[in-house]
Amino acid sequence: MNSLPYFIYLRKSRADIEAEMRSGDEENKIDTLERHRKTLVALAEKLQLPVGEIYEEVVSGDTIADRPVIQQVLREVEQGLWAGGIVMEVERLARGDTIDQGIIAQTFKYSDTKIVTPMKTYDPMNEFDEEYFEFGLFMSRREYKTINRRLQNGRYASAKEGNFVGSIAPFGYEKYKLTGEKGHSLRIIPEKAEIVKLIFDLYTKGLPDDFGNLRRLGTPSIAKYLNEKGYKSHRHDYWLAGTVKDIITNPAYCGKIRWGYQKQVKRMVGGKIVKTRPINDENCMIVDGKHEAIVSTETWELANDFMKNNPPSTIGLQIEIKNPLAGLIFCKCCGRKMSYRAGRPGKLDYLVCKSRECKNVGTPIWIVEERAVAVLTDWLKRYKIKPKGQTSSLKNMLGSIDDSIKVYEKEKEKYKLMLNKAFEAFEQGTYDDEQFSGRTNEIRKKTKEITDEIAKFENSRMNLMTRIETTKATSANPKAIMDIYKELGSAQEKNDLLKQVVEKFVYYKEKSGMYRDVSVDDFEMDFYPKLVQ
Within a domain: residue 81? Predict the structure, then answer.
């Protein structure tokens, strides 16, 4: 009999979130996670299942990459730490794409981990349960896409009517429910609206200099001025130049509603999905809103004319990174990710916190990398591999991906034959020009969709192969990770390897190395490993 405990996994669905929003005031508000927690704890007691941990996923996301808790759960399931998981529905585990669903299905199957729901218990080693489980994931994905499409269409229609459809109101406003009609709008918060007016005045008119002439301020100077006056921004106790710029360019402040300004775009980069929100200034929809303006249209247009003539510098998507520690080092003071700052000719490259108000002091990047490597090397010397490793589970996932590629390749071959038959029918006079064009366009469209799916699986396969090789090297000798690291040439390759084993580093430095009694490497760096010790 399996003596391992079970875990409970809680996550809100989109329907749960909408139900909470409809439930009224705070006293009567539905707490979905708490209700599900009670249900699943009662189910565990009824079935006499020992519960070792309760996990709550509070972030929104339809992919594994967007959900850190499910990533932790899957790592533990791979290592055979659980007899099973208890969830409200199998759909709570994954509504992501085919690859994500395959990873979850294979992880539970090859670790022999059961899935318990109030309706049914799924045994991954049972062929019929496995098919039922996979079918449930497939149907949940279809349902998610349908709901998401309807939701986006509804939001677009609501925005077109002048309603505010964002989740967070712009600074200076509060969101409220419209009376007697669907949708929300914005209501001015007087004391914050005065700060917005001040920002526009400073940017379009300015402050008087020593001679009494008005001198316009740029966004960094405005942020500094607001901080000196003690004003607080939307999310922090301080202002940043970027926050000021966002206010100046937001047409909500002159009574408009903007839709589609920064749509999410997904790209495959190095075998991983990278999400960006590029500015879509030309094709976004701008309509009159139902809310009151804080500044006049003339003032807003003047400020944005100034902005277009002297735009702040922007950094595009970097395909090849220059910092091997990118995304791994966090500031201990403000919690932000530390950034790479290239030095001028003859000067060193630095790791810095780019928040103007943060007091954390930067250090040359090569010194920080040396410390990170030393900390990781020391930890790996003491690292103990769990009895049940991850390699076999990863190989099983690889086999599943290979099987999927074969299925799609067969489909692609089938459509290739269909295209040949369409040409034969056209040559024999069975199809006229219109029928032939319609048929071949349809076949080519299907072929492209299949080719795109194959490309996704092949990218995932490459990524998984890297994980397998790293895991094999680590299992045989944990210290081999740093041997591999030293042989890698590019910062991108080093960064990819570090992210296999490192959750994050937290950096803190109080004084600059320019002081006589302070060494340049006098800083603290806490280490949080991803592998389980």
Answer: yes
Identity of residue 274:
V
Between CA 279 and CA 287, with CA 285 as vertex, the angle to 5 degrees is 130
List of residues 6+ apart from 270 with CB closer than 8 A: 319, 492, 496
Residue 324 covered by a domain? no
Please state, as a whole number, how many other Cβ atoms lie within 10 Å of the Cβ of residue 84. 22
For residue 273, give the H/E element and its range: strand 272-276
Q: What is the pLDDT of residues 413-470, one digit of tens each?
A: 888 888 888 888 888 888 888 888 888 888 888 888 888 888 877 877 776 676 666 6
List, in sequence order, every residue forming a beta bridge with 177; answer none if it has no partner: 184
Q: At what angle do helices 433-476 and 98-110 cross, to 10 degrees?
A: 40
Backbone φ and ψ of 504, nearest 5°: -170, 160
66 and 149 assigned to the same domain: yes
Q: Find the CATH number of the domain harbouring 400.
A: 1.10.287
Boundary residue ending a domain (309, 343, 371): 309
462-493 confidence digits (pLDDT tens): 766 766 666 665 555 555 677 777 777 788 88
As a whole number of angstroms, the distance between CA 219 and CA 216 comes to 10
Q: What pLDDT was estimated at residue 116?
A: 92
Give 68-124 pLDDT, tens digit per residue: 888 888 888 888 889 999 998 877 777 656 667 777 888 888 888 999 999 888 887
Convert the pLDDT of each residue in 360-403 to its tens digit: 898 998 899 989 988 888 887 776 544 344 555 566 667 777 87
The tokens describing 170, both together, are 């712009």
Asked whether the beta carbons of 362 and 372 are under 8 A apart, the reply is no
Q: Which amino acid makes up residue 414?
A: K
Q: Are residues 435 and 304 in the same domain?
A: no
Global pTM value = 0.49
Give the DSSP per-residue string, 349-390.
-EEE---TT--PPPEEHHHHHHHHHHHHHHHHHT----SS-S
Q: How many domains does the chain have?
A: 4
Interacting residues of 168 by C-beta distance below 8 A, sequence separation 6+: 175, 234
**298, burial (CB in 10 Å: exposed 0-12, middle 13-18, buried 19+):** exposed
- 98 plus 231 within the same structural domain: no
73, with CB counted inside 10 A (0-12, 13-18, 19+), is: buried
Same domain, 419 and 470: yes
Please give the residue range of the domain that contains residue 282.
Answer: 173-309
User: What single letter denotes the amino acid at residue 94?
Assistant: A
